[in-house]
Amino acid sequence: MIEKNFEPQILAFCCKYCAYAAGDLAGSMRLDYPSNVKIIQVPCTGRVDMLHLLKAIEEGADGVYVAGCLEGECHFIEGNLKTKKKVAAVRKLLVEAGIAADRVRMFNLSSAMGPRFAEIATEMTAAVRRLGPNTIRKVDIAVKEKMLT
Ligand code: FES
After folding, report:
1. Residue 53: CB partners within 8 Å, gap ≥ 6?
2. Which DSSP category does 63 fall into?
3. Whole-model pTM?
4. Does 18 sit in the ligand 1 pocket, CB within 6 Å?
5. Of the candidates 21, 40, 75, 105, which lies 20 to 30 Å from 96 by C-alpha distance?
6. In angstroms, what is the span from residue 17 Cα to ligand 1's centroid?
7. If you classify domain 10-148 with CATH, what class do you get?
8. What are phi and psi of 148, to 5 degrees?
9. What are the sequence ranges of the domains in the chain?
10. Residue 12: CB within 6 Å of ligand 1?
């Protein structure tokens, strides 16, 4: 069930060589994409650790994604392939914790794919909106409210 007035907070770790550049291109092309997505530039997706993804969810992000170079085109040879495995491991951990795996995803694109960048941001926002708010955040808010009363 889609919660009314729910605006997901989504973090995107974007490789500066591809996804971040594609985001710039999307901006130059004046393509619309949801403002729900907050971008963090990384030198390569290989720099993104499992802890970054888990911490983001723990801190209340409703969704997190990593966007890296196309497979075989990482400037650091296989940073994106390594992170693909990290994302898969995090998704598995989320399921074990009773959290929807689709809150964390990975995408690959080139710097020339501005429209794809906008499409990914839109697709991720819609998917997370369907999932509803991050339950960890909900629990945290409920606990804090209880402590204040
Ligand atoms: Fe882009 Fe490694 S340099 S994912």
Report:
1. 64, 66, 86, 87, 90, 104
2. E
3. 0.90
4. yes
5. 40
6. 6
7. alpha beta
8. -80, -15
9. 10-148
10. no
